[in-house]
From TrEMBL:
Pfam families from the UniProt entry: GtrA_DPMS_TM
InterPro entries found in the cross-reference section: GtrA_CellWall_Glycosyl, GtrA_DPMS_TM
Phylogenetic lineage: Bacteria, Bacillati, Actinomycetota, Actinomycetes, Propionibacteriales
Compartment annotation: Membrane
Family assignment from sequence similarity: Belongs to the GtrA family.
Name this polypeptide is given: Flippase GtrA
Signal sequence coordinates: none
Transmembrane segments: 20-41, 61-80, 101-125, 145-167
Domain (GtrA/DPMS transmembrane) ranges: 21-169
Bilayer disposition of the protein: Multi-pass membrane protein
Annotated keywords: Membrane, Transmembrane, Transmembrane helix
Amino acid sequence: MERLRHYLFVRHGQNWLLLFRFGLVGGSGVLVNMLALIAAKRLGPDPESVFLDLPLTDFNIRWYHAFSTIAFLVANLWNFQLNRHWTFRSARHSGWWREYLPFLAVGLVTQMIGLGILTLLMHPGSIFSLSPTIFDNSSGLRTRLYWAQLITIGITTPLSFVVNKLWTFSSVRGRTPVDVDEQTPVAPL
């Protein structure tokens, strides 16, 4: 038992700190995501109406997919900036685009998975569809889209953390720090 405790809390203590910071950043990102989703929903057409028919199929993309993607892009940029400077402290080790493109790539893959989950929660023919009786869109707290988005975020966040920790931000460790304004190497601290 002592070896397990040492392994989890001493050897991997830094990972717990990173997960905690990532969680705080993610919590703020959820708020940003939801605010962007609410704004898009209020400014846009009916979320369940068709945004785009997929050619040669009976399938289509709904406005809630577009709203979710807009919210993702806003929150992704927000989370990247905070994770880069505070969680993983990688800003001095690599250029902004060098880290953002992998972060965005991870986010886009996660968003695609999330759109599938969102569809399962929103589509009336899905066995996972949120009940329109309970989530009748009569108030903000009873809006199906908001709950579906929150559930989707909750499911996709652990995947995003693991991949970003192992690939996006760790790939720059061990490199010579870079002056983020000029993209030139600077002396190590």
